Amino acid sequence: MDVLRPSLININGRIYRRNVIKEEHYEEEEEFSYVGPSESEELAADETCDTHVIDQTDKGYRCAIDVPSVLYKYIIGKKGETRRRLESDTKTSINIPKQGVEGQIVITGSHKAAVSSAVTRVEVLVDSFRRKQPFTHFLSFPLNDPKIQEGFLKFKDEMEVRKACEHLQECQSFIRDIAEGKPLPLEVTGIEYMNDDPAMVDVLYAKVNAKDRSDKLQVIAERLVEHFVSAGLMVREWDRVKLHGTVINTLFRRDSTGEESGGSGRQTVSEREAFDARNILKKFGACRFGEFELNTVLLSQRYSTDCTGYYTSAGSINFS
């Protein structure tokens, strides 16, 4: 987030800056204890350990085994209960690295058979708890070929657009009810700015109102947003829809040098540069753009234009 241009939120008519809060999550300590091996595990534990090398030392025998650090706690047990039980049953000593430190678990004892039994029991215990852990990796065949990605995005976009068109058609009845089955006479008069400082403006817009001063257009807009939010096709950012006709938007500022800003045909938010609109507001604040009858709601495609210069339409419904 740009600290000089933070995102704003409207709460009960007051404008607040939205600060990003970093949340920390802590895992709750799990309680577990060693309940002893099952009959089949007892048989496996009594077998000779052939998968690990048991070295003879001056003090007896020693074996080091690799165990992921995330599983140490299951070998230690609640308050060390599991490790003490294993050491007592096998007459060995089990040295486990500190939690979070990767390393080997070292098992030592006076007799090779005792060390072998302890190694097998640790492996049985680790295998038992490993099966209960959520997997972190999986095998896959990569399908991220650019042609496949392009096809998927096209499919996803077309599917979402079709869904949006269907929901727009569902709004036909309540729109006609509110508009009483006829076009709404509107007037576009006056200029306003979006933010709270006329000397640092990104968007200037013309105010749109019903000629009869009714709230029909506002009600239609609110009902449309409510319908599309409930359908999961829109996220509500403001408590009230601001009816406006954009006059100037710094998002579309052209480079005065004539150079292109990129291949996308539009600039990113970080490249926006606010302007001082005070003189414009003083001179044209009450500008009268005209009157017309509104009879259509369009599903318009962002960053696009049709042959009329307006946004390309994917769907529409009429008031009458």
Automatic annotation (TrEMBL):
<dbReference type="Pfam" id="PF10469">
    <property type="entry name" value="AKAP7_NLS"/>
</dbReference>
<dbReference type="InterPro" id="IPR047538">
    <property type="entry name" value="KH-I_ASCC1"/>
</dbReference>
<dbReference type="GO" id="GO:0003723">
    <property type="term" value="F:RNA binding"/>
</dbReference>
<dbReference type="InterPro" id="IPR009210">
    <property type="entry name" value="ASCC1"/>
</dbReference>
<dbReference type="InterPro" id="IPR004087">
    <property type="entry name" value="KH_dom"/>
</dbReference>
<keyword id="KW-0694">RNA-binding</keyword>
<dbReference type="GO" id="GO:0006307">
    <property type="term" value="P:DNA alkylation repair"/>
</dbReference>
<dbReference type="InterPro" id="IPR019510">
    <property type="entry name" value="AKAP7-like_phosphoesterase"/>
</dbReference>
<dbReference type="Pfam" id="PF00013">
    <property type="entry name" value="KH_1"/>
</dbReference>
<feature type="domain" description="K Homology">
    <location>
        <begin position="59"/>
        <end position="127"/>
    </location>
</feature>
<dbReference type="InterPro" id="IPR036612">
    <property type="entry name" value="KH_dom_type_1_sf"/>
</dbReference>
<dbReference type="InterPro" id="IPR004088">
    <property type="entry name" value="KH_dom_type_1"/>
</dbReference>
<dbReference type="GO" id="GO:0005634">
    <property type="term" value="C:nucleus"/>
</dbReference>
<dbReference type="GO" id="GO:0006355">
    <property type="term" value="P:regulation of DNA-templated transcription"/>
</dbReference>
<protein>
    <submittedName>
        <fullName>Activating signal cointegrator 1 complex subunit 1</fullName>
    </submittedName>
</protein>
